[in-house]
Amino acid sequence: MASTTKLSQQMHRIAAQWPGDPFRPNLQLKVFLESLADHPQLTPQAVRASRTLLNNEIQKKYQLSEKTLRPKAMPLHYVRLVEGYEKSAQGIGRPWWKIFFNVW
């Protein structure tokens, strides 16, 4: 029983650190992790997987090459994608003329 309590506490800490999703305010992964922390059959593997996702360990272990991040056909694609995501999260949209003329 004590190990289940310890796992639950670890999962609650992970859930508390999880960032919110500005695009889905009614559907947060943090809420799911909180409910998972109270599940009677919580496993160490679930806690470890959640911690791995929180710490971006997979991204650190398998780094993307510059060739993948900047493909020759569209070298600024991912830079623009991240910029659009960040501006959209702040409520900043592209002007209609940039959308119409496909200008970034």
End-to-end Cα distance: 56 Å
SS class: mainly alpha
User: In the residues, how many domains can be counted?
Assistant: 2
Helical fraction: 55-70%
What's the number of helices?
Answer: 7
Output the radius of gyration. Answer: 19 Å
Q: Report the portion of residues in β strands.
A: under 5%
Helix/strand order: HHHHHHH
Rounded mean pLDDT is 92
> What are the segments in which pLDDT stays under 50 over at least 5 consecutive residues?
none
Largest sheet: none
Shape by Cα distribution: elongated
* Strands, total number: 0
Summarize the structure.
This protein is mainly alpha-helical and 104 residues long. The protein contains 7 helices and no strands.
Helices and strands in order:
Layout: H1 2-17, H2 29-37, H3 44-54, H4 57-61, H5 66-69, H6 77-89, H7 96-100
Helix pairs in contact: 1-2, 1-3
Keywords:
mainly alpha, 104 residues, single chain, elongated, 2 domains, 61% helix
Describe the 3D structure.
The protein is mainly alpha-helical. It is 61% helix and 0% strand. The protein folds into two domains: 1-63, no CATH class; 65-104, no CATH class. It is built from seven helices and no strands. Helix 1 packs antiparallel against helix 2 (29-37) and helix 1 packs parallel to helix 3 (44-54). It is elongated, with a radius of gyration of 19 Å. It starts with a helix and ends with a helix. The model has no long low-confidence stretch (mean pLDDT 92).
